[in-house]
Amino acid sequence: MKAKNIFKFIAIFFIAISFSSCVEDNDFSIPTTGEDKQYPNLKPLSEIASLYEGDIVDFNEDITTYGYVISNDREGNFFKSIIIQDKPENPTIGFEVRIDDVNLNARYNVGRKIYIKLKGLAMSKYFTTFQFGVRSGNNVNRIDATDYVNSIDRSAEIANIIPTELTIGELTDDHINTLVKINHLQPEIQGLTYADPDNTFSINRDFVSCETLESIVLRTSGFANFKALPIPDKKGSITAVFNKFGSTNQLFIRDTNDVDFTEEYGCFNNPTDASLAEVKALYTGSETTVTQNLKLKLVITSDLSTDNISNQNAFAQDATAGIALRFSDAYNLKLGDEIEIAVGGAKLSEYNGLLQLNVSPSNILSTTAGTLPTPEIITIAQALTGDYQGKLVKIEGVQFKDNTKNYDGSNLLISECDGDELTTFVRGQATFANNPVSDKRGTITGVMSDFNGAQIYLRNEADVNFTEDYTTCGGGSTPSGDDLYISEYAEGSSNNKYIEIYNGTGSDVDLTNYTVGLYANGSATVGNTIDLSTIKSTLADGEVIVIYNGGASDAAITGSGGTTSTVTYFNGDDAIALLKSGTVIDVVGNIGEDPGNYWAVAGVADGTKEHTLVRKASITKGNTDWTASAGTDAASSEWEVKAQDDFTSIGVR
User: Residue range 124-142: average pLDDT?
Assistant: First the structure.
């Protein structure tokens, strides 16, 4: 009996020694003692990486490199590898060491300096990640579980790893496999877990920076112990190993302690006041995100009640500037409403020359009854400069150039018969669209807008205060022959299509500012274009330019001496326009409208389909009002409708 008790005592003694050898950093195998070894051929990771020239590098000599461990596989988000970087702080390079073993954190804890004896190992680059392992054919595989301890020595040094603090936009390939810290992050969607609790797929979760509004992926393994835990619905910092898959930046955390979210969720809480001029000044010439946490106080200067503007567009103004608001959903704001609106994260963009602030109705913080700004009195010449875009203005001493039309569509305002012209545009849905324009002269009030050229937006018919006698300029819409225009349009069989431009001005015309543009499939934005100055620099009086489809086969077209262009890739339901300095001066079809079938011309229901249209000899200038140009019958139309493939008048006028 005594002998048995002695053996029990000895067993318990050794068990106790075994448990007492554990340490807090989980380094419970082969404790490191004494000074580090001396390695005669010791090279930094950066020098080793420079050996890579696109193919696997085999190490056949005694070379040693070193690095500091930054990964931890204890929670399962790293698998059979350790990630090292060359310095504890401000690293210049990182590597993955591929090892066919688990629980590597027990031996290679975070901060541990390690030495890798490279002889017998290989180096490769997987996408953007440098790797150490063993060669297997054309691949670099994991170092065998029985071999890696012979290749990797642990130093006595355990450093404090300082993550590199960066914004998302500052991350580069130089930071791959290094420890980084990104502040001011929050999940794009609240209420999610790190990964799917019910399967083992790795999951990407999107996070946004409240500092720069850039996004980045946090990738979590389906085997991570914390995959079912909720991501905190707050914001703060994430410390992680940075990597990249293709062009997608990814963060890998070691455990949930790397996610330090303690601040209130929301990128733009408690915004500060700003002026509209300050916000507009942020625009860079292309889509620009407002990254500052700002709010504006604006007065709505557009009138939704008359339907001359959609319920997703509005004009607004403060004491410094005016702007077009583009809402993501329908709004319900009245003329004269004063709103406070948060604009942090909103985008400034340009649509056909009009600067827009793109916001959501949820950005509106408050709405009260406000006071409309006093319209600024300007001239037509000033209106055309674009300097008053978005502002409420008043122009005195003007009249409609053609006083026989209705408000619907485009109309021209003039102050002098041979002076500048300013376009008004009224939607067909507007309550006053079908009312005749005033046949008098006076003052017009509206908001300056732009659609490939300055326009004035009319809120309602009361904006037109014309009480003076009309100045006759030669009779309504009688053409004056003062510019180029479209003289022929052909939508023939197959690719036999062309458009003809005529100069009947009485003098040669410099073509520098002239283009022809295609507005396909009901688009309000020009698609294919051709600059007429690329064909010839000047168009002589009485001459034409023919532009035809490169696939045309009819000899009359191909022998016309014209130029081929993709601008003639039209069907009978696509609008095509002649533009001068970006402003439409003549058109076939209605820009922004898909007619469903084809447009009627001179009473021919499908006039723009499989017909040739020839401008009547009595017409000597273009017309931006297609409805008026097409007419309702042969007498009222500006066009003669000829049969398909009747190209007898091409090239002559």
Answer: 95
